[in-house]
Amino acid sequence: MRTALLILTSLALSGVGQAQAPAQPLITEAKELHRLTRADILLPRHVRIKGIITYKRGDEFNDFAMQDATGGFIGDVQTPIPMTQSLQLGQEIEVEGFTVIEPPPAPRISITQMKPGPLVGLPSPQPLTPQALLNGAGLFSYVEFSGVIRSTRIERDLNPHRLVLDFGPPDKRLSVRIARFDETTISRLKPDARVRVRGTALAWTSVNLQPYSIFVGVHDASQVELLSDARAPEEIPPVELGKLVSAHPEGFDARREKIRGVVTLHWPGEMVVLQGPQGAIRALPAGDADVRVGEEVDVTGFSTAASGRIFLDEAVFGRPAQGKLLEPELINIRRLGMEVGTVDREAHLVRVTGTLLETTRREENPMLRLEWNGRMFDALLGANSELPPNLTPGTRLEITGICHYIFGENARKFAIRLDGVELQLADASGIRFLSAPPWWTPRRLAIALAVILVVLSLSLLWVVALRRRVAVRSAMLVREIRARHDTQLLVSERSRLAADLHDTLSQTLSGAALQMEIAESLDDSPKAEDHRTLARRLVDRSREDLRRAVWDLTPSVLLHQDLQAAFESIATELSEDNNCSIKVEASAPLPVLPERTRSHLLRVGQEAIHNAIRHGRAKNIKVTLADQPPHLSLTVEDDGAGFDPVRVPGPTEGHFGLSSMRNRIQRLGGIFEVKTSPRGTMVISKVPLHPLPQDS
Fold it and tell me: With the C-alpha atoms ordered 251, 256, 260, 266, is the resulting torsion angle positive or negative?
């Protein structure tokens, strides 16, 4: 792919083709390469630079690092140019070619021509600190730094194999890759040795030319100068554990330190925790650690600071001896959090109590989530450990383990404020049961609440259904009561009609029949015609009585007008037929009344007016409607002859007028009263403005 790209680039630059791109200026300095963007490199640029070779990874490879006075870059020689076996470190060379973006790193030049020059020696190295190198300073240039070797290894995945030296703590590690080494080099460059390294700062670069995985490429071991030999663990004087955990590590210049303590926790392949009278510390083994909890052992390693604590990196363990495990401190989670700024308990063996909330896992580690007086904390067991059987939420437990402070977002914002506390255990032996969970577990409580909710729901549904049934039954009862009232009213109307017909029509027709018989007995005498005339009058009167009775059955006068207008219509009609004066007065405006109430009042008023005309022979009648909350009053007053209330005939004698009026008003829940004297009669009816349903 790169060969095809070079051919196309050569054609473009030589002017072959239909279109010719604008000529780009020739690049003659390394610093110009570092200023190119990805878009610039995608359109290959012509390069001609003279510099010095600073790094070759091997004679069998055609790439090398070189630099001029402005910076460095990678050159990749293309065939059929001869291989680079003859090129040497420190040799001056002039190269010509084009920029390429793959493979990384960049800047990278695909060399099409080169002119080797004389050996002038390596340029003066640019002195930098390891931290500056990790930040990207001096990339692709010849540099120099010093530091203490933390670990060494042969990286066999690289071609060719490299001897790799690691410097600095795990989170800020700088690696040196030596291309040519032997056993002497390996024996000379050991952990704890202080060295000065000269080499080329290299890095892989992303697709956007951003460096990552920065390292220093060294041509051979002669470029690594030994400043001080590595010390054997037995040559290192021990340090009090308390002084070590409160010291300030020197970072890339830190040398091995040795402590002695009793092993309180061992997670194979991860860490070992040691504790002594002066403090406790975590150690990250450089290899396998053949130690057990309770053993006393010497540990040699590099003190490293991270997340507010000191630990030993690349730790090497001496021969263990039987020790005495310190008694764990009995404490509660609240004190652990409150005293974090005054008492050092990080990595110390402690014993706390708590109530189990749940069991879970963090990757390969079983974990218990517990609570003490509203404060949450976790207990983390070693990888692939087994939890005790019958662990159920609500169980009260005693946990013995290593205290681990969690400094997170809160700690970054506020001084000495934890994000949590965690206890680390080797296995389930640090868990002790104190009491079984209460019967009222959250699960059982949830079940009980669910049952109660179901019962309440069913009860509510039953109440709703019962109310519906009661409403239906009530409606049925109302209809039945109304039907009974209607039946009673019908009977009353029939009684009234029977009384009217008996009192008027029957007697009038009987009188007419008698007059006709008398007229027939007199034959053609003049008096017979008088009797016939009287009979005709009686028949006319019967017809009028019958019309009035039928009219009383159907008060159509109320269909399109209110109660006052209905009385005025009745007054007009009866005044003309009976030669009497009927006046209607009402307080304005009258309240709106139910239809049944208006009908009853109309019939009561009609009956009172008829009685005044028929029996009292009144000449003046006054009908008054008055709004007297909470009643409506109907008064019919006349100037007739009156009657004797004691001797007035009743239903037993076939007269239903007064009883019918009284029954109507009582059905409305009202008051009916009659005042009479020889000077006239007053009929007073008072009905409630809002009668009860059963009274309507």
Answer: positive
**pLDDT value at position 499?**
56
Average pLDDT over residues 300-317: 92
pLDDT at residue 11 tops 50: no
Kindly report, residue by residue over 378-399, the tens digit of the pLDDT: 999 999 899 998 888 889 999 9
Q: Is 608 helix (H, G, I), strand (E, B) or coil?
A: helix
Distance, in Å, from the CA atom of 416 to the CA atom of 412, rounded to the nearest integer, reads: 9
For 21-46, the DSSP string reads PPPPPPB-SHHHHHT--HHHHHSPPE
Q: Which residue's structure tokens are 């830190």?
A: 254
Sign for the pseudo-dihedral over CA of 457, 458, 463, 466: positive
Distances (CA, A) of 102 to 37, 42, 209, 280: 14, 10, 11, 51
Q: Name the strand (E) or helix (H) holding 575.
A: helix 563-578
Residue with tokens 């002195």: 127
Give pairs for 541-548: CB < 8 Å, separation 24+: 541/504, 541/508, 542/504, 542/505, 542/508, 542/509, 542/512, 544/577, 545/500, 545/501, 545/504, 545/505, 545/508, 546/501, 546/505, 548/500, 548/610
Q: Where are the alpha helices (DSSP H) in 63-182?
A: 130-134
pLDDT at 590: 82
All domains in the chain, ordered by first residue:
26-119 (2.40.50.200), 126-228 (2.40.50.1040), 327-438 (2.40.50.140), 439-554 (no CATH), 558-696 (3.30.565.10)
What would the two tokens of residue 596 be? Answer: 């049944």
Alpha helices per DSSP H over 153-272: 183-188, 241-245
Q: What is the mean pLDDT of the chain?
A: 85
Which candidate, 670, 666, 667, 662, places its Cα nearest to that of 688?
A: 670
If one counts every other C-beta atom within 10 angstroms of the C-beta of residue 89, the result is 18
Cα–Cα distance, 402 to 279 (Å, whole number)? 12
List the beta strands (DSSP E) in 249-364: 257-267, 271-276, 279-285, 295-306, 309-317, 321-322, 329-330, 349-362
Answering whether pTM is above 0.70, one says no
Could you give the CA distance from residue 176 to residue 195 in angstroms, rounded to a whole number? Answer: 11
Summarised one tens digit per residue, pLDDT across range 17-40 is 334 456 689 999 999 999 999 888
Q: Could you tell me the pLDDT band of residue 628, with boundaries at 50, 70 and 90?
A: confident
